[in-house]
Amino acid sequence: MKTLIQMLHELARPEVAEFAVVSERLPCVKVDGKYEPVDKTARSTDEILEMLVASGGSRYVDEMATRPCAWTMRLEGVGSVGVQAVMRDGRVQARFVLVRRASIAAHPAPKQPSRPPTRKSIPAQPRQPSRPPTRKSMPAVRAAKASMTPTAPEQKAARAPSRPPRAHVEDVSEPLLRAAVVKPAGARAPTGSLDALLLSARDAGASDMHLVAGRPLMLRVAGSLLPVGAPVAEDEAQQMIAAVVPERLRTVLDERGSCDFAFDRPGQGRYRVNVSRQRTGLKACFRLVPSEVPTLASLGLPPEIEKATHHHQGLVVVTGPTGHGKTSTLAAIVDIINRETSRHVITVEDPVEYVHARKRAMITQREVGSHTRSFASALKASLREDPDVIVVGELRDTETVSMALAASETGHLVLGTMNTPSAAKTIDRLIDLFPPGDQPQVRMTLAGGLHLVVGQRLLPSADGKGMVVAAELLPGSVALWSLIRDNKTFQIPSLQQRGRGFGILRLDESLAELVRAGRVTLAAALAVAENPEDLEEVIAGKDAAAKPPPPEPPKKEGGLLGKAGNLFGKRGT
Prior knowledge:
- A hairpin with a 2-residue loop joins strand 2 and strand 3 (about 35).
- Helix 15 packs antiparallel against helix 16, helix 18 packs parallel to helix 20 and helix 19 (about 520-530) packs antiparallel against helix 20.
- The strands form 3 sheets. The protein has a 7-stranded mixed sheet with strand order 15-14-16-17-13-18-19, with helices on both faces. The chain has a 6-stranded antiparallel sheet with strand order 3-2-1-6-5-4, covered by helices on one side.
- By secondary structure, it is α+β, with helices and mostly antiparallel strands.
- The radius of gyration is 34 Å and the shape is elongated.
- The protein folds into 3 domains: about 5-105 and about 140-165, Beta-Lactamase; about 180-290, Beta-Lactamase (2-Layer Sandwich); about 295-505, Rossmann fold (3-Layer(aba) Sandwich).
- It has helices at about 5-10, 45-55, 140-145, 150-160, 165-170, 175-180, 195-205, 235-240, 245-255, 295-300, 325-340, 375-380, 400-410, 425-430, 440-450, 480-485, 490-495, 505-515, 520-530, 530-540, 560-570; strands at about 15-20, 30, 35, 70-75, 80-90, 90-100, 210, 215-220, 225-230, 260-265, 270-280, 280-290, 315-320, 345-350, 360-365, 390, 415-420, 450-460, 465-475.
């Protein structure tokens, strides 16, 4: 039976890609995409664990049953070897992949003699013995085991009292850690570099990833935060977060304690990041932005929203609480304009999340802080750039809303988002941002210029594997504009109750359809409904708005008074 040293030296052959060993199976090497056995004896789980301990994985053995582990080792005469191991149902699987081959200068080959070698010139101990080692060769095997020591960063991490950082593993072998990522949702992700953590979050179906010093990694999956792994050491979190903060924002982070930015990772996608300081150190929240711009159908939104793109001027607002998909909806609307028209679209975002590819339209994307000082200054400058559509990432203050309303009056279609709970309250918020003396003018601008308000809420799906959107639509109409102009916005909910003919879609109606279709649970729908009691009655088939008419009073035909009543009744008609 070959030793681990003998089998690992197979990696020195140029045609060998990796060495793999599995419990109760023959050890194999991978040659030209095929596995070939290198020994005639299968290894048990305990024997493989001893191999992994001998190869520098003593501090990973206890964790293999819960998540894949990866580290590096250095083997003399071979080079740097990446090790990946996992235990499933009591069986261990381990892979040894050559990451960096030993240089020829470090291990020079013996000079070729000018004449054929004799028996005396043959080495006493060949590098690959043809027979199992005997007791006399055990000192040589132990010496070879001693050479299989972890690299210097691992030795330094082993002396640290806290959880050792493993960022160097991804730097050495990125494909190795990608293979170790746990794909099922809720499973633990591998500890490593930031790229490995972000990739594991995508594979788990998370929408956000929270990296906090002194706490476990947190993934938001289907609306719930799930802890993953052990707490992240403060120095490890500091190193990973500081590496992605742009140079221009480091002073802002030091002075204000937080900053926002976005960055790309080739092969992964785009991320929106917020970095802040808190009690235990740095904290970063990564929003995982899909690489492809979504469509209204893929988001599950009503197709009627597309009608808003047919207007050449006016205001369209996408509203909802924070983290409920407003940016994705806005990007889907912009993509419709990009695909079907040849307009000039200017976007002002903080930061840029979805990157729009060039299609029919010409799109100019500007980022607050990088390309412009503020939303208001960018909007003011955009009016001289011959725009057709202006997209505002967030209508957050009076100056920005004022510039957006002015642009909507001067022949531009303005799209924006607001953090408001419902479509009706969005109009009140737009008006209340201004002082009382300016509010009548704002009402006049909205009356006739407001084309659509889209409100949306994200709910966990019934199967718990994702999120489902519930939408409400409040399109512009003469009835809505009259209420805005006359300062009767408190009657908008009443208009929504009877406004099906105007194209109005209430949030509770959307929730009822989702519950009937089995896409969300009744409890999840009631948690965000505007009128939970009415929603429950509608779902049960007892619409409160459609009450039966009161019964008619019985007719009295007998007697003198009855006849008189019938006579007067006929005369009254």
